[in-house]
Amino acid sequence: MKVPLSWLKDYIDLDGYTVEDLARMLTLAGLEVDEIKYAGLPMPTYEDGGRHEFKTSGIGWDRDKIVVAEIREVNPHPNADKLTLLDLFDGEKEQVVLTGAPNIFDLKGTGKLPNPLKVAYAKEGSTIYDGHADGLVLTTLKRAKIRGVESYSMVASEKELGISEEHEGIILLDDDAPVGMPLVEYMGDAVLSIDILPNMARNASVIGVARELAALTGRELRKPIIDYKAEGESVEKLVSIEISDPELNPRFVLGLVRDVEIKPSPYKIQRRLRLAGIRPISNVVDATNYAMLDQGEPLHAFDYDVLKERAGRKNIKISTRAAKDGEKIKTLDGVDRKLTSSNVLVLDEKGSLSLAGVMGGLETEVTDKTKNILLEGAAWNFINIRKTAKQHNLPSEASFRFSRGVHPSLAETGVKRGLQLMAEWSSGKVAPGLVDEYPLQPKDSVVEVTTKDVKRLLGIDLTVEKISELLTHLEFKCETTKVGLRVIAPPHRLDISEGVVGLADVLEEVARSYGFDNIPETRMADTLPPQIGNPVHEWEERVRDLLVSLGLQEIVSYRMTSSERESRVVSHDEYVVLANPIAPERSVMRRSLLASALESIEKNSRAESISLFELGPVFEPVKNALPNEPRKLVLVMTGLRQSLSWDVGDSPNFDFYDMKGRIELLLSGLRYTDVIYIPTDSRPFLHPGKAAEIIVDDKIVGVFGELHPLVRDKYEVGDAPILAAEFDLDVLRSVSPTYGIKAVADVPPILEDIAVILDEAVPASKVEALIRQTGGKVLTAVKLFDVYRDEKIGAGKKSLAYNLTYQSDKTMTDADAAAIRKKIVKRLEHEVGAKLRS
Amino acid sequence: MLDKLNEIEKTALESLEAINDQAALEAWRVANVGRSSPLMGIFSGLGKLSKEEKPVVGQAANRVRVALESALEERAQAVKNAALAKSLEEEQLDVTLPGRRVQLGRLHPSTQQLRRVMAILADMGFQVYTSREVETDEMNFQMLNFPPNHPARDMQDTFFVDAGERGDNPILLRTHTSPGQIHAMREYAATNPDNPPPIRIALPGMCFRYEQITARSEIQFNQVEGLVVGENITFADLKGTLVDFAHRMFGQDARTRFRASYFPFTEPSAEMDVECFVCRGKGCSVCKNSGWLEILGCGMVHPVVLQNGGYDPKRYSGYAWGMGPERQLMLRYKIDDIRYFWGNDLRFLEQF
Ligand SMILES: [Zn+2]
Does A155 fall in a domain? Predict the structure, then answer.
């Protein structure tokens, strides 16, 4: 919301505060100022090295060079049809000034004006915006000859003075403008752009912001006196209102103004509206907008005579109700709108008049010919207005306020303020009385507050008097009781509840007015909570650390993907599907970490070597319930095993065993000791001969291998094999071993080698298992150090060579070792047909 | 005989002087103190000498042997030293050539930042609490005092899950980690419903907002929330805790300010700004010239939320806050495009 400072000053004395002071105070109190736009008031220059705290724009007007002047004569330009020459008095001397302004052009040749026109006069050397430039470009007025007539100064438009974008004509000031007065003194201004938080709809008005400043500065809020002369037949006798559902429409107020003269509003009002971001239309329409900005109640003006005509010259009967599904209305933007039951309509006996709280209808709109005006102020259920504004994409000043909740008390205040302004600006006559249907009056909340509550929740000691003072500035009524205060919420607030919630609501106001910065910073004195810890999180962090120590880079991918994207590597029938995806390629929640990891490889395919991991949930749909979110881990590797450099000219690619080594180290780092790898050809995305399931405690905790060449071909990657591993972390964690540390022996171990020849088909893991079993406890390490194939040992055969380490508490002899070795050889011969290789 | 010994000694020592390498030393040893050297010949001829001559010559021969051996040892040391000096001089590497590297693993920058935050919070007594990412409207909004159609829902555009007609309780992607507040409070309260224990937890995790993906806005982001509930928890405690946190996170001299704000699940609500650590408050593009950076939103836990968590708001109070590790990284490293975080481009990730 844009608030001109001059308007605020109507309601509160702000002398002694700079614009930035005010912006800072408001910002800290929750009315965040986005931008300050100077429209005349001097902009601080901070030549001392300071700076603007806020985004700042606009210009200040030079006191001596930009002044109020009057045009006394309008004459044609001798050499240019489209220009006029103005005889102008600037308070000191008469000047001849050239203009091409269309709003003066009509007066061309009038000569001496019977009523001089008051204008904003920019003298030679003044700095203003270039009216003809695109955007805002500063220019300094210099002497020039235009078509033979010397020009050195000008009569300014709003654009030139930084008030608005308007450059269609020069500013014509109100008649009371004192000639010769510096313009900045007459109407210099600054505009605060304030973000209104969802709970602060009450501050979406000038009076609301002024009230906050009153609370923050401790100065008095001077509300406008809303009063007018009423005459003629009372409106209550002419119009009736029927509300069918008070929940939708708690209050509906109508007032009548007769014999309005539609014309432009006073310039002061037009200027303020423009600064506030609203285009002036006519005195009557401007009055509704001005009253809304002033008080926060959106108003709607009907052409009374059109309504009267529709009622067959009888009394007008206005009603409100929810729209029926499929019902239609033509709004004043000319659009035919199809309605639903969330929308609310204002109707007369002939049909719908407006889409309540959002936009009026075309037929009953105020026009230049309107004579009599029926002015509506109402209260609506914010939910309906929210839905309606969203559904019809009609954000407006009115729906902005109504969709956040406007207190019904403002319907009356708003209508009266509107009637007052219409009467003032259009010489209309206000009919006595108001038609006021108020079936659902909210109760003013009452909250008990004690100094103890303030201490308990805010941590500060405030006296009852201080609390009362802070709240009274915000128009709460405070009564002292035996225990503290009885606080009654003011009749413009819907956001204050009662009871324990009301207490929080009121304490927030106490804290804001007192100033958050004045509340001390303390360390908690409360009891420490039970220490519970998060073993799952801690374990996962350990997994991350191990993988990082193994040289892998962690990635984090989008949780959202599409089944098409994932189907390059795995296909799932069912997904957690988004009802409102941002794009088809991000329309479901992922089921595979591998899919996104492979996309990452694709993306980084220019790197010579890639080793990545990701840890996180996948999403398994459950019919009509929340999905399962099992935790997964994926590892992918591809590219060169060793980085090429000045002494490494070539390197093999990562292969199966590079991945397996990482997996073994990861699992060993996690204390798993009995891990079994079983070949698998049941994973279509893996090479059937280069894939294994990882088994712990008879459970499959993961699978890994080389990506199937056909799958790899679906990605734009190089020729190197891609290695991938996927773990079910929940399963893996469920089989976490208990783990003890073994004593380190101080007797020397006996080291021995053994080599056996056996059939290719016998897996190495089986041989090792047999060796370990036979060796028993004293055989503490078995390491395969050679795999050898050769014609000499026979086709379809291989030789496996192992280092064996024997370690016992007692000193072992070579003979002891030899005996065990003999048993091992025998066992291998017997079970897998191995032959000792000599 | 003695003359011969003197001659042997003299000749040997002279020839030793000229020796400069290991091989010649060995040859000299063999020639002069070896088994078949003239000196050893004298020892083996001792038996043939007379009783009187024998001890004299024997002693003299021994003296010569000791002299030669110690000279050899000395010379050997000198040769070794010379050889070492020579090799040290010759074996000079180009130390500017790159070293042989193994691959360095790294955590994702968000994980790194989450850990920084969590480590500080752990020091301050906060324990980690994690919860699910797909939630119900009830847990994500209603329990947190966002009734259906509440205007505050505009602040959190939401991804909904296609899950059939569920009325006012659709399934959605959590828009903040705050549903964890309810889960946690209920878990704690269940341990002792009449006297629920105090809570101090940190809730990290991925959250989602319905946004277009641009340099400034993302559909997913991490959040860390803190939650404190107890019988004597005040707004002043909130300020104290968060200022302490800011000092650990941004430096002991980091200035902070609290601005009133609005979140449905806290009241009073505030934003904590930290003096811009890029320009030290002087104003720059990172802080949009304000001198302040918006770091976190916070507030006293709303009574309705306490109630929904099983804590009586008349007896208990608490505070909560939330912040974004990615935003902190963007400010710290002047990252101007939020899309880098989930883009998984190694050229980005390897800079952390
Ligand atoms: Zn800065």
Answer: yes
Q: Do A610 and A681 fall within a single domain? A: yes
For chain B, give me the number of helices (H) and strands (E)?
Answer: 12, 9
Domain of residue B247 covers 109-349
Question: ipTM of this model?
Answer: 0.89
| 8 Å CB contact of A554 and B108 | yes
Which residues crowd ion ligand 1, with CB under 5 Å? B 276, 278-279, 284, 286-287
* Domain shared by A196 and A92, yes or no: no
Helix (H) or strand (E) holding B104: none
Task: Tell me: do B168 and B291 sit in the same domain.
Answer: yes
Same domain? For A481 and A627 the reply is: no
The residues, ordered by sequence, that sit 6+ positions from A211 with a Cβ below 8 Å of its Cβ are A203, A221, A473, A474, A475
Instruction: Confirm or reject contact between B149 and chain A (CB < 8 A).
Output: yes
| Single-letter amino acid code for the residue at B244 | D
- The DSSP code for B290 is S
Query: What range defines the domain where residue A37 resides?
Result: 2-60+191-217
Least CB-CB distance to B160: which of A557, A580, A611?
A580
Q: Choose among B101, B135, B234: nearest Cβ to A643.
A: B101
Measuring CA to CA, which residue among A326, A400, A325 is closest to residue A359? Answer: A400
* Cβ atoms < 10 Å from Cβ of A55: 14
pLDDT tens readout for residues B167-221 = 999 999 999 999 999 999 999 999 999 999 999 999 999 999 999 999 989 999 9
Has residue B184 been placed in a domain?
yes
Q: Are residues A202 and A165 in the same domain?
A: no
Among the ranges given (B41-45, B251-255, B271-275, B308-312), the one the predictor scored with the smallest mean pLDDT? B41-45
CA of B332 to the centre of ligand 1 (A): 11
| Chain A contact for B97 (CB, 8 A cutoff) | yes
- Res B41: pLDDT: 87
User: What CATH code is carried by the domain that includes residue A785?
Assistant: 3.30.70.380
Beta-carbon separation of A199 and B262 below 8 A? yes
- What pLDDT digit, counting tens, does each position of A262-296 carry? 999 999 999 999 999 999 999 999 999 999 999 99
- Partner-chain contact B160 A579, CB within 8 Å: yes
In which residue are the tokens 């000499």 written?
A: A792
Interface of B with A in 243-272 (CB under 8 A): 243-244, 257-262, 264, 267-270
A-B contacts (CB, under 8 Å): 278
Note whether residue A524 is domain-resident. no
Let me know whether A297 and A353 are in one domain. Answer: yes
In whole angstroms, give the CA distance from residue A14 to residue A217.
9
Query: Considering its fold, how many domains does chain A have in total?
Result: 6
Please check whether residues B219 and B247 belong to one and the same domain. Answer: yes
Interface touch B290/A53, C-beta < 8 Å: yes
Does B344 sit within 8 Å of A600, measured CB to CB? yes
CA separation for the pair A276, A260 (Å, rounded): 25
* Mean pLDDT, chain A, whole residue set: 94
- Work out the minimum CA distance from A364 to partner chain B, whole angstroms: 31
Chain B residues in contact with A643 by the CB 8 A cut-off are 101, 103
- Residue B130, chain A, CB below 8 Å: the answer is yes
Q: Where is the domain boundary, B90, B117, B146? A: B90
Residue where a domain stops, chosen among A517, A547, A577? A517
- Whether residue A716 is found in the same domain as residue A803: no
pLDDT tens readout for residues B294-309: 999 999 999 999 999 9
Identify the band that residue A111 occupies on the pLDDT scale cut at 50, 70 and 90. Answer: confident
Q: For residue A754, tell me if it sits in a domain.
A: yes
Tens digits of residue pLDDT in B277-292: 888 888 888 888 888 9
What are the tens digits of pLDDT across the range A544-581? 999 999 999 999 999 999 999 999 999 999 999 999 99
Rounded CA-CA distance A540/B111 in Å is: 12
Q: Are residues A612 and A670 in the same domain?
A: yes
Do residues A676 and A816 share a domain?
no
Does B98 reside within a domain?
no
pLDDT of residue A736: 85
Centre of ligand 1 from the C-alpha of residue A20, in Å: 18
Q: What is the DSSP letter of A794?
A: -
Q: Domain count for chain B, please give it.
A: 2
Q: Do A516 and B239 touch (CB under 8 A)?
A: yes
Return the pLDDT at B224.
97
Would an 8 Å CB–CB cutoff place B241 in contact with chain A? Answer: yes
| Pairwise CA distance, residues A559 & A590, whole Å | 6
Q: Do strands A344-348 and A316-322 pair parallel, antiparallel, or not at all (unpaired)? A: antiparallel
